Amino acid sequence: MDTWIQMIITIICSVLASSGFWAYVQKRSDKNDLRTQMLVGLGHDRIIYLGMSYIDRGWITQDEYENLYDYLYKPYEQMGGNGSAKKVMDEVNKLPVRKSNYRTGEGNGNETRQ
After folding, report:
1. Whole-number Å distance between alpha carbons of 49 and 43
2. What are phi and psi of 2, to 5 degrees?
């Protein structure tokens, strides 16, 4: 019985000490880092594009703001995004918010936030 335990411990230690195992772990870590970088990049692009569109238009609907802030900006910020998207969000936060009118896709002029 002791021989089996010693053999199992030896195999586990050999696997953990092997450079191949750690190379595999490092490769998995690198892949996750690349995915994170790609997601941050895509989030940044979308925040800048949408934010600048709303700024150029001069107003934003509540739904647009929630989508931009809750689903793009907050995760982007938590993943380590940089300050340029924050500058755009600061400008978006200054925009008047209009109530959505889904039939025409235009706001109706009712501002709910400054």
Report:
1. 10
2. -65, -30
Give Cβ neighbours of residue 75 (< 8 Å, ≥ 6 apart). Answer: 43
pTM of the model: 0.63
CB 73 within 8 Å of CB 89: yes
Return the amino acid letter for 40.
V
Coil, helix or strand at residue 60: strand
| CA 28/CA 58 separation, integer angstroms | 45
Per residue in 81-111, pLDDT (tens digit) is: 878 899 999 999 999 999 877 655 555 555 4
Q: Which residues contact 59 (CB under 8 A, 6 or more apart)?
A: 95, 96, 97, 98, 107, 111
Q: In degrees to the nearest 10, what's the CA dihedral of 85, 87, 91, 93?
A: 70
Q: Match 């235009």 to its residue by tokens.
A: 106
